[in-house]
Structures are given as structure tokens and as C-alpha cells.
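We both want to read C-alpha cells more fluently, so let's practise on a single case. Would you write everything just below, so we can both look at the same thing?
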Amino acid sequence: MLNQAAIDAQSQLTCPRWVPEDRSSALALLEIIHPKVFAMLQITDTNLWAEFARSTECEQHIPDKISKVLTPFQVVLLIQALRPDRLVTAMTIFARKILGTHCILF
């Protein structure tokens, strides 16, 4: 596992203003571990991510042009990095897509 100093040393990220400050390390870690996924996100495009940023159900508001290129698991990684409060919902959506079921009970 990378510590904060290692993340800061390896990341080239200047966190966009729309990303909560407490999520900058998680976003930087995503950039380091999955650079191709990170590049697809166009994370610095504030207009693209505006609805996602203000939504209480952000997993339903990933920009269309981004959601079309991400796998369901990459969406989970995105939500984990930016909105961990919505991770359970994102994981449920992931499981439904992968398992092909509409009803997953916890």
C-alpha cells in the first residue's frame, strides 16, 4: 500500500475544485494505479462533471461520454475514489449488471 508521501510524489494531479479536498488522495491513487482509466475520466472538465458533483445519487449521473467507455468495475473504482458514501449502491449496481439479476438482497 502506498502512503501519502508516496502518493504525493508519484501523482501529477492538480485536483479540480469540484472534487472534495478529502478525496484528492483517493483520486491521486486512482491516477497512479489505473492511469488509463484515469485518463478516460477527463476529471479536470468541471462542466462535464457538474451534475455528478452536485448529485445525491452520483452513480446515476456519471457523464454519458464517460460511462460509455468505463466497465462496470471501473465505475465502482470511480465511486470509491470520489464518493465513497455511494459505494454500496455502486457495488449493488455492479453486481446486478454482472450477475444479470434485478434483485439482490442484503
